[in-house]
Amino acid sequence: MRMNQPRVAPLTDDAAEGAAAELLHRGKDSNGYALNIFRTLANHPDLARRWMVFANHILGKSTLPAREREIAILRIGWLCRSGYEWGQHVLFARREGITDDEIRLVQSGPEAAGWSDADRAILRATDDLHRDAHISDPVWAALCKHLSEQQRMDLVFTVGQYNMVSMALNSFGVQPDPDLPTFEI
């Protein structure tokens, strides 16, 4: 789904004023570069500010362990064919100790050999939610063996959040940041 040109142009530092400039400042990575997702969302700072409250819960305050969260995010990014989302979360996944072999395995899905029962349940739940916005009873039962009620709730909201973000990134034509991994890792 990669577009060669953005539909919503990312704001440059020089063009950003007020709330947009603040968003760019808050959206900088460890190298001081404002990521293209934030440069794009800076065109609508009120939306971005409100969305970030929820996004920060998913990434930093969720009860879902980081490894499980990243497996679900990678899978929904892959299913949505969101190269930007995939690449950003390859970096997150690596920081959480997920190997490149496991990252590649996410592309193959829950039936691939090598997954634990817990990982397989998370992948199946993600696939269910992407397919018809509902986790089937057998997959829910499998999740119950590995995740608490709050973790299951956070899983559903994590998949939903990154499905929405993938739709926005794909539709807006957000271009990859420098050195972002691609689908071909």
Please explain how this structure is put together:
The chain is an all-alpha fold and 185 residues long. The chain folds into two domains: 18-60, no CATH class; 64-172, AhpD-like (Up-down Bundle). Helices cover 63% and strands 0% of the residues. The chain is built from nine helices and no strands. It has helices spanning 18-26, 36-41, 45-61, 66-79, 83-95, 100-108, 117-132, 137-144, 149-172. It is globular and about 50 Å long. The mean pLDDT is 94.
Question: Briefly, what is this?
Answer:
By secondary structure, the chain is an all-alpha fold. The chain folds into 2 domains: 18-60, no CATH class; 64-172, AhpD-like, CATH 1.20.1290.10. The protein is built from 9 helices and no strands.
Notable characteristics:
185 residues; mainly alpha; AhpD-like; 2 domains
- Poorly predicted regions are none
- Cα-atom radius of gyration: 17 Å
| Mass-distribution shape | globular
Count of all domains: 2
Average pLDDT number: 94
Would you state the CATH class of the largest domain?
Mainly Alpha
Number of helices: 9
| Main sheet makeup | none
SSE topology:
Elements: H1 18-26, H2 36-41, H3 45-61, H4 66-79, H5 83-95, H6 100-108, H7 117-132, H8 137-144, H9 149-172
